Amino acid sequence: MQAIVIHRYGPPDVLRYETVPDPQPRAGEIRIAIHAATVNRVLDVNVRAGKETARGPTLPLIPGVDCAGVVDAVGSGVSRWRKGMRVAAAGVMPLDLCPEDEAGYAGPMGMMGIKRPGGFAEMVAVPACAAIELPAGLDFHHAAVVMRHVPTAWNLMCNVAELKAGETALVMGAGGNLGSIGIQIAKNVIGAKVIAAAGSAERAQLGLALGADHAVDYSTQDLTAEVLKLTGGKGVDVLYDNIANPKVLPQAFRAIGFGGRLVTAGAHAGPNVTIDFAHLYHKQITIKGRPGYHPPDVPKCFAAAAAGKVKTQIERILPLSRAAEAHRLVESGESRGKIVLDPTLG
Ligand SMILES: NC(=O)c1ccc[n+]([C@@H]2O[C@H](COP(=O)([O-])OP(=O)(O)OC[C@H]3O[C@@H](n4cnc5c(N)ncnc54)[C@H](OP(=O)(O)O)[C@@H]3O)[C@@H](O)[C@H]2O)c1
Asked: Other C-beta atoms within 10 Å of 98: how many?
């Protein structure tokens, strides 16, 4: 099969489009013929650049931390999957949620695209318990983005922040992946009020288009003052931030109201941020960081996507062979939605 292989860390050109042996599914695994894999800032671009060696990537590496496609081979001991089923997979494998018939899984452990071969390939073998069947009506490209971002956003909003209907959430980075999805989960799934905040008028506007009640452009507006004005001086119940921008997060923090919660699963613009501890204790604020997702939420995420409650933003779909170009686009910071690689396009 054709795959992208990283033999050494470096600029995007280290992503080599090569012929490699087809993966064979081991006991407890399925093989997926891949139609889509997303390109990510930290887990793809930074891994390729050698900035994420603490995660212990194994070189040579087929990167790609998620995929969507069609089951095309089934290993021994797997009863749930048949050839031709449409699936997505991502994350740490195997999950801790393997059913009985796959509990004997003896393949490699760890995240696909980091510790085991990933989705930048025509095929990948994954533990059967790590796959989820796609609902009808959801195409592979959007399914890969749902797999990558929606469960993390869902976990943060629903389980970690415990945002309730009628409460108000301030969503930072409204034009980004987790931000744009967080707005829709808060609004369309939970029934909360949403203030979308972003670092440009265009991205703030996107927040409104996604259903937010209000939008603030923190590149030109005083975020604390605007949010307090919008909430009648009360402040927000939940601050959802996955950026840790040291210039902006302190302002957002002062807009959290009594009993508020700050939740995060990312810190690419930080990680160090100064916050007002007096505000923290006076307002009895809780700060919770929680990467990853809660596996039982994944079917709910796909159902919400299939029902149109959560729409993912795709900027461009490129052939797998153009992975280096995809990395450059993500690195430039200019893309306004997800870049997706499709191996069926070459
Ligand atoms: N743990 C998990 O499971 C998980 C899953 C997915 C993502 N993440 C992490 O969550 C974070 C957000 O992911 P994402 O995909 O939503 O990110 P993203 O879409 O690439 O970026 C989100 C926002 O960050 C701001 N931004 C981008 N580059 C910046 C820079 N250099 N300096 C300051 N601000 C910058 C931009 O917003 P404004 O300019 O409008 O402020 C952008 O819209 C990342 O750190 C990612 O690794 C974690």
From this structure: 18
> How many A from CA of 239 to the centre of ligand 1?
15
**Ligand 1 shell residues, CB under 6 Å:** 41-42, 149, 152, 173, 175-179, 198-200, 203, 242-243, 245, 265-269, 291-292, 333
> Which residues, 6 or more positions from 216, have their beta carbon under 8 angstroms from its beta carbon?
195, 196, 197, 198, 204, 223, 226, 227, 230
**CA nearest 87: which of 25, 144, 22?**
144
Q: How far is the CA of 106 from the centre of ligand 1 (A)?
A: 35
Task: Tell the residue nearest (CA) to atom 44 of ligand 1.
Answer: 266
Provide the pLDDT for residue 77. Answer: 87
For 319, the 3-state DSSP assignment is strand
Residue-wise pLDDT tens digits, 194-221: 999 999 999 999 999 999 999 999 999 9
Residue 152 Cα to ligand 1 midpoint, Å, equals: 13
| pTM greater than 0.90 | yes
Model pLDDT, residue 100: 46
Per-residue pLDDT band for 98 (boundaries 50, 70, 90) equals low
